[in-house]
Amino acid sequence: LHHHERWDGNGYPDGIEDANIPLGARLIAIADTYDAMTSDRPYRKGLSHNIAIEEIKKGAGSQFDPELAQQFCDMADAIWKSRVELVSYSDDALTKLMNTQAQAQITRQIVTSYKDVPDLSTAFDISKLASNEYFASQIFKHTPAFYIVISESFDPIYVSHSVTDALKMTAEEIMSHKCFEINGKNMDCFRMNGGAINCPIVRAFHSGQYQKGKVTEYASGSEVHMDLHAVPIDLEDRNGNLLKCAIEIMIDRTEDVNMQKRLEHDIRKLIILLQELLSGGMDKDVAEHSAEIIKEYGDFSEQLTQMDQQLKNSYAQLLNG
User: Fold this and answer.
1) What is the 3-state secondary structure (H, E, C) of the chain?
2) What is the model's pLDDT at position 131?
């Protein structure tokens, strides 16, 4: 009722002032103002964290309780600094953010999701490989993937430099948005697709279990195909309290998909050329052996078809586990 009252008495609905305004309303007034300034609106983009803090400082003593305004700004700056520092051009920050148990848990989920890929499953003991702490730490340091750690309130608290580069966004721009607002998503993550929510992060928070998915997006006029993995994890905040989070790992499969498409195109083109050759004119020597040529062509076509199907099956297993 009273969060639009002002410390100087010029607010509404009752025009009450200073300590006569209920404490809860004084707190909500500051939080509501910060949220209103930093959130996107249909008519404008949200303001930056720094600008919002400066505006709240200006309003201290007139619009806001001066003591609460100062405490809010100090706390918000500390949290903001902690988040922004995690956006690092050294991906060692990710291994420092997670303990070895969390790293091993995530690595085990990702690696075992590829258990149906024949070459991988026969070459390694997946369970031992995934639980190896050194292996897990090297995965996060050197894998060319996109990593985002997201809190349960959908705030990005860590993004790898590969993400900032790909999105062409600064750390501040990324941290100023909820994860579902980044890159113009406009809540698309929460849409249903085949009875399930699109975003594996949302499903991971809801189920408390590892989730995966795939997405095709368009960037600079080209299709980008991504595998998505989301693993719920608990991380410690600066005070040692557990913070429910999920890590989203995005792996670019664009080149794999394009290679598959090129192979399918080349196979179709080769079959058409063979058909044209056999249906065209043949000299006498070729004509005498036409039955053998047709049989060889049939055998070759069958082999190509089988190879094409095997490639499709392998890729489908890779994507869907």
Assistant:
1) CCCCCCCCCCCCCCCCCHHHCCHHHHHHHHHHHHHHHHCCECCECCCCHHHHHHHHHHHECCCECHHHHHHHHHHHHHHHHHHHHCCECCCHHHHHHCCHHHHHHHHHHHHHCCCCCHHHHHHCCHHHHHCCHHHHHHHHHHCCCEEEEEECCCCEEEEEHHHHHHHCCCHHHHHCCCHHHHHHCCCHHHCEECCEECCHHHHHHHHCCCEEEEEEEEECCEEEEEEEEEEEEEEECCCCCEEEEEEEEEEECHHHHHHHHHHHHHHHHHHHHHHHHHHCCCCHHHHHCHHHHHHHHHHHHHHHHHHHHHHHHHHHHHHHC
2) 63
> In angstroms, rounded to a whole number, what is the distance separating the alpha carbons of residues 225 and 250?
10
Which tens digit of pLDDT belongs to each residue from 110-135? 766 655 555 544 555 656 665 667 77
> Which distant-in-sequence residues (6+ apart) come within 8 Å of 306 by Cβ?
none
Sheet order of strands, 211-219 included:
156-159, 146-151, 242-252, 222-236, 211-219
Look up tokens 């869907």; give the residue: 320
Q: Does residue 66 have a cis bond before it (omega within 30 degrees)? A: no
What is the C-alpha R_g of the chain?
28
- The token duo for 33 is 């103002």
Question: What percent of the chain shows pLDDT beyond 90?
Answer: 20
Amino acid at site 204: A
Whether pTM > 0.90 for this model: the answer is no
